[in-house]
Amino acid sequence: MVNDRPEWTSEPDLASRRNGGGVVWANDELFAERENLIKPERPEFQPWSFGHKGQIYDGWETRRRREDGADQAVVRLGLPGTITGVVVDTAFFTGNYPPFASVEAVAVDGYPSPAELAELDWDTVVPRSPLKGDAENFFEAVFTKRYTHARLTIYPDGGVARFRVHGKPVADPSLLDLGSLDLAALENGARVVGCSNMFYSSPSNLIAPGFAAVMGEGWETARRRDDGNDWVSVELAGEGVPRLAELDTTHFKGNAPGWASLSGSADGREWFEVLPKTRLQPDTRHRFLVPDARAISFVRLDVYPDGGMARLRLFGGLTDQGRETLEKRYRG
């Protein structure tokens, strides 16, 4: 299968409801609710599904404007971070999609109201650009600044199915206990840097916030027909000393790995054993103490021979170097 999507779409969706995002305001949502914009699943369409306001769309749709202006929606990023690209998906909107859109972003502390957000100076991430109907519209963005909110503007009105904000999460060190945290958590700044197979789902799901609600919210490989095994490597939030590992196969019943092991590395090239090859049970949260732990910056999960895993957690404390890395990332 050929994948012609931009490479940056493999980065996490910072705005996704699954990652804690929320649509805090929209000036209009008469035909379809703003909350649909950040649903993690693909848009769907059911013909002849009419409500009292017309065809029901799986997206955000505003009324037809009869005056000058534009419509807007403001999204609080569930994972604040740097933005590498955005997707304005107009799936199933054909005669009612907006011809143009722009995207702005802002960084703010705390939990401001929509009125307070409106008073801030926003940075332009995507200038006013043309859109295609019933299509994913990709816009690359190259920014090193950490953002907490994104604002989608459509000109002059219409419908957008999904709004994806891809990027790299950047945690606020002041809100973390740096001596005891999940070193492999996406929300703390960890990221997947290598993977043997992602046939069914993204390996980034392994380190996403919260528990997996269904099998599709984990990582699952194709069935192997050789003598090898599948693996994922993760760059940690910063150099740290792991004390407890969690290998969660929840929801994976007939397709969980039979065994798994963990390796650590200081540089992502030379690896040593962190957790020996250990038998796993299906649909189970496994927790293992890490014996004789030492500082690592990367962890590699090997599953034998293949299968699915819901979550990988690696609890421990950051070293002085790890703390410096986390704080430097936050400062930009």
UniProtKB/TrEMBL annotation:
GO terms for biological process: allantoin catabolic process; purine nucleobase metabolic process. The keyword tRNA-binding does not apply. Its EC number is 3.5.3.4. It comes from the Bacteria. Residues 20-169, 189-317 form the Allantoicase domain. Keywords: Hydrolase, Purine metabolism. Residues 1-21 are annotated as: Disordered. It catalyses: allantoate + H2O = (S)-ureidoglycolate + urea. Pathway: Nitrogen metabolism; (S)-allantoin degradation; (S)-ureidoglycolate from allantoate (aminidohydrolase route): step 1/1. InterPro entries: Allantoicase, Allantoicase_dom, Galactose-bd-like_sf. GO terms for molecular function: allantoicase activity. NCBIfam families: allantoicase. Belongs to the allantoicase family. This is Probable allantoicase. It comes from Amycolatopsis albispora.
